[in-house]
Write the structure tokens for this entry.
Amino acid sequence: METKAVTRRYDLDWLRVLGILAVFIYHSSRFFNMEDFPVKNPTWYPWVEYWNRFATTWMMPLMFLVSGASLFYALGKGGVLTFVKDKALRLLVPLVVCDLTHASLQMYLERLTHGQFSGSFFQYLPHYFADDFQWQGMHLWYLLVLFVFSIILYPLLRWFKGRGRGMLSRLCDLLALPGAVYALALPTILMVVLVDPSSPVMEIYAGWPLLLYAWFILAGFVIVSHERLRASIEQLRWLSLAVAIPSVAVSLVLILGLPGELTFGTTRFSLALGLRAISAWCWVMAFLGFGSLHLKLSTPFLTYANEAVLPFYILHQTVLLSVGYFVIQWAIPDLLKWLIIVPVSFAIIMVLYEFVVRRFNVMRVLFGMKPLKQAAPVATRPAQPATGKA
């Protein structure tokens, strides 16, 4: 294992921040796309659906891959009990808090706007805990899935950093060969093309089968462990982008632009899903490559934003739905609705983070953050007796 790989990768911090902003923009557009959402605009637009399908092609694969890269560093900070404790505090605590608090507001707005409930929020609360309790935390399913897969993969990842580090190094040496890193896309391609989408193992979350996110986590761990592999991905950045753009365009046309539904086993299905899988990996490789080259430095903004990422993610959908519930009822152009929803929601989220979450240790823990360190008391020197000299 190459010792240079243990230095902090600020490009991954930047990608994490930018990825969460992409999730925010994605959810802000869900008011206007074809698929259902807790709160919907009366009119939906095909071009918004194209954007949504494009975003889901790479968005969560990138987030899980960056999370897998973070595990490479987390595994060096203690044994299994420390690892599980840290992940539970970081991921499960905010998930449970969301389940017990603001997930109920999201479900209330969904039931209200879908004509499934009438009454106040407090009248709805008993129904939430009796019938609609969201154990996966609505949009926070990502935290639950990341926790479960991190625990499942822990023995393998720990072995890679210990006795298996030689094998990991040899594997990365092979992947660092020109173009070999694209072999990481093969499991994704085979799964989406060959496995019937109606199978229980193909349950879709944010555009991809849930099981595939374990592969993205593992790939992130492997990629960050090896300096020459990082350099190879950086060198291939333009090729990755050159493949990502046409493959996603063709896959979107095959999925959305042609009449009739995709049918498993047909040439159109295999081509559409295969190209989408290729595109997903090429987009992720392009982001990693350009990020590695251009996002190397830490800044005060990055330090602040990186700490705010998790609370921002936890709060963003509840705030978006709350703001959107009122704005979509206004008699104004739909584009203007979106242009109001996005900045107003962003401002509310940041105000809540800055003045409700960030400054108080209890709230920080509930939102998966580390407590603020108390300043060490300043030592004072005892007063010296007077000497009587002028």
The first helix runs from residue 10 to 29. The radius of gyration is 24 Å.
